[in-house]
Amino acid sequence: MPALPVRASELTALHDRLLARAHWPQQAADEDATPLGHWIEVNHRQNALLWAQEDLARRTTVADAEIAANKRAIDGHNQARNDAIERIDELLLVQLGLVDEAAARSDAPQAAPPAGARLNSETAGSMIDRLSILALKLRAMQQQMTRDDVDEAHRSASRLRHARLREQRQDLAGCLDALLADALAGRAWFKVYRQFKMYNDARFNPALVAEARARG
Known about the structure:
This protein is mostly helical. It has 6 helices and 2 strands; from the N terminus they run H-H-H-E-H-H-E-H. The protein is globular and about 60 Å long.
């Protein structure tokens, strides 16, 4: 049987490796990558940048303009993150032979699953996105475990949470491998689900439409 397009153990190792790099995520990874690897890195990078902006947006001692700038940055990173999830799903479905490459970028690419294959409600791309977020949570909790400005109760609670996060990542990684293996064997399939984020689109966001009408 052909190999899986990606293995969860390799994926989680990549997530951790990128988080440990100097100047990342401010600078994109410069290593050669397959198209799938490129979009996995883009998704992880956007999640990391989004995480940082979410922290900044909770500040209470800065001007409102700074929080507004954080919110606009959050919207941009979230859109790019979701775009990357869709590209990951497109590439995976093409590699699994479930979607025709020519139609993969359309609004509704038609999958051709084997008869009797179960439809998985969550896509592999969304699972990869969740693994990225878990990597960020694990790093953040690791930092809490080593703080010297908190008491031992805080560090102990952080260690317990870190262990639970590791378990959650291990469980999700196993589910991703199982989904891809089942899809490769013709037992399961998933679709490319378009997010259609209307709040970032001036044609669909009613508040932006109203602003445009008022100007025009």
